[in-house]
Design brief:
two-stranded antiparallel sheet, 331 residues, single chain, membrane, 13 helices, GPCR_Rhodpsn_7TM, Rhopdopsin 7-helix transmembrane proteins, 2 strands
């Protein structure tokens, strides 16, 4: 199967008549890799959202986990129509609008992960203020999410504007790449800084643990598990966006006017990394968070046992009623 050639005049003007929109490799990466992983990720994010919603006590980190699950789900859901619409009409207004929304969901995923890492760092460095409620209140988290949303909407609007301009001009390629790097690659770098500072603070405070924390080793273990969870999410974001996105954009800058077969394959690989990044958070929760595992059991396992026991009681009542009715009929 040869690459699919785009017949849209916009893309012919932008890249040339021989531009290959989707190579054989990128087609199989999308259909065999990205879409199945996205479907599994949607289920995983919805399950994690349901589990975290079962928590009755307020936690800034858990609130951001739920917020991240919403945007990751939106990203994975939008990935499938974006792929099909681009096949039919890559330069049409619907494709550009979907691409802008898809870009917004990626921006929100990256920046929310950064908020989670910052929240964890603040909780480790100012535990008393967080515990007393002077820091990381619900209002603080909501305002932070709104600020991030406005910032991401602004970048998405600029991205869509440059995408429309590129339809009739070839002079804005570098600017579009800079927008990509500023929006997606650069914000991931502070994740490394906040996680390193968090680890340093935890190690330095281990030797000076208070007597109350010594009597509560499970709390300390839970905090360390939460740190490992956030670190795992941060590392995968760095791989998917800072490394993957930068490599793809640099390659695009050097080869954007060529046929594009190698570029589309690299682009699909980068998108596969991003889909995996938005799909595997539930694995980190299961692996490192005892609170998530216990909440999952309460939501599904114990609820399933309770439902089964209720059905058995109803069935036994029906059998008793049937036996009593038979006895009455004999009389």
């Amino acid at each position: 199967m040869e690459g699919t050639h785009v017949s849209t005049d916009v893309y012919n003007d932008r890249y040339g008549d021989d531009y290959v929109y989707r190579s054989t490799e990128s087609y199989y990466i999308d259909t065999v890799g990205c879409i199945p992983v996205a479907l599994l990720g949607i289920v995983g994010n919805l399950v994690s959202l349901l589990v975290w919603n079962s928590q009755t006590t307020y936690s800034a980190t858990i609130l951001l986990f739920k917020y991240l699950a919403v945007w990751d789900t939106a990203y994975l859901v939008s990935f499938i129509p974006v792929s099909f619409v681009y096949d039919d009409d890559p330069g049409g207004p619907l494709a550009i609008s979907l691409d802008a929304f898809w870009y917004l969901t990626k921006l929100e995923s990256v920046h929310t992960t950064l908020l989670i890492a910052f929240t964890r760092w603040l909780a480790v460095h100012r535990p008393v203020h967080v515990h007393t409620g002077s820091l990381l209140t619900r209002r603080h988290v909501v305002v932070s999410c709104l600020v991030v949303l406005v910032w991401c909407l602004a970048i998405s609007a600029v991205f869509m504007t440059f995408n429309l301009i590129l339809g009739t001009s070839n002079t804005w390629v570098l600017e579009l790449i800079i927008i990509n790097i500023v929006g997606l690659a650069v914000p991931v770098l502070p994740l490394v800084v906040f996680n390193l500072l968090t680890i340093k603070k935890i190690r330095s405070s281990t030797s000076t643990t208070s007597s109350s924390e010594q009597r509560l080793p499970t709390s300390r273990t839970s905090n360390h598990s939460l740190t490992i969870t956030i670190m795992s999410m941060s590392v995968l974001s760095v791989v998917a966006y800072t490394i993957g996105k930068t490599v793809m954009d640099v390659y695009w800058l050097r080869h954007w006017s060529e046929s594009g077969s190698s570029f589309t394959t690299l682009q699909s690989l980068t998108e596969l990394l991003q889909v995996v990044n938005s799909s595997v958070n539930i694995i980190f929760y299961f692996s490192f968070s005892r609170k998530f595992r216990s909440s999952f059991k309460n939501c599904f396992v114990r609820r399933g046992h309770a439902g089964r026991a209720r059905r058995e009681v109803l069935q036994s009542d029906d059998r008793n009623d049937f036996n009593s009715s038979c006895a009455m009929s004999r009389l």
